[in-house]
Amino acid sequence: MLGATTSFELIRRDLPAALDRTAKQPTVERATERYLEAISSIKTVEDFLSNDRVYNYAMKAFGLEDMTYAKAFMRKVLVEGIDDKESFANKLTDNRYKDFAETFNFARYDKTAMAFDRAQQGVVDKYVRQTLEEDTGTQSEGARLALYFERAAPTITTTFSILADSALMKVVQVAFGIPPEIGALDIDKQAAIYEQRLDIEDLKDPEKLQKLLTRFTAIYDTTETSAQAANPALALFGSPSAGIDGNLLLTLQSYRSGGF
After folding, report:
1. Three-class SS string for 134-153?
2. Contact between residue 1 and residue 139 where contact means Cβ atoms under 8 Å apart
3. How far, in whole angstroms, is CA 23 from its chain's centroid?
4. What's the half-sphere exposure (Cβ side, CA atoms, 13 Å) at 143?
5. What is the pTM of this model?
6. Could you say which of 52, 60, 164, 231 would form a disulfide bridge with 93 (CB–CB 3.0 to 4.6 Å)?
7. CA neighbours within 13 Å on the CB side: how many for 78?
8. Residue 23's closest CA among 123, 151, 127?
9. What is the DSSP letter of 183?
10. 120 in Cβ contact with 36 (< 8 Å)
């Protein structure tokens, strides 16, 4: 087993090559071929949701595999789209749903939604990256967390985006020594604590982002790796509510300043 620091740096050193190797894995190649072959038949939201090859591939590409069962939820995301600021996806704290609705924009483009490159090669690229991160997790869950945080960083606009995602939250907690127990506090108090430690604007600076991730992997290797015999961190990617109270998750998903 490689440490988080070593594993993360090995991948970052030549990320394109790592992605290429992942894309050429037989199971990934087959899933991608089937997805690209099937999308020409997708004209409606119902077509999309009922075609498992397309729907399951897309959900994994966006890191939403754990929500694959929730088709009524995803139907609402797709049907309402993103053009109305009051749409379902726009009210969710987790930006992945908004990105999903924008990529598969049936609300705006109707039957031609799947014709755009973002719904074709763009989704394939996301799927390959997601698979690379999962494969990395078999060697080092810390490196997987770092890769995920690096990918997600450009989309993080508020502290609440971090609090709504247990994997992002884990990285910040480890990097800045924030105890998980603060999860029992009021959500605004939690946000204030995170804001004292992390300036969200720093995530837009590649140099500052890499310093954060280097700090995270070093601390993870020291304090977390020895405790991973049962690999409990996998739960961070297996459930959006891992480590988060159900009521708190609901609050985070629907949070907007001043509420709905």
Report:
1. HHHHCCCHHHHHHHHHHHHH
2. yes
3. 19
4. 21
5. 0.82
6. 164
7. 24
8. 127
9. G
10. yes
pLDDT by residue, tens only, the chain of 260 residues: 679 999 999 999 999 999 999 999 999 999 999 999 999 999 999 999 999 999 999 999 999 999 999 999 999 999 999 999 999 999 998 889 999 999 999 999 999 999 999 999 999 999 999 999 999 999 899 999 999 999 999 889 899 989 988 999 999 999 999 999 999 999 999 999 999 999 999 999 999 999 999 999 999 999 876 555 445 554 466 444 333 344 444 444 444 433 33
Instruction: Please report where in the chains the tokens 């039957």 appear, as a residue.
Output: 111
Using CA atoms, how far apart are residues 233 and 184, in angstroms rounded to an integer?
20
Alpha carbons 250 and 255: distance in angstroms, whole number? 8
| Tokens, residue 99 | 């990105």
Q: Tokens standing for 78?
A: 């797709």
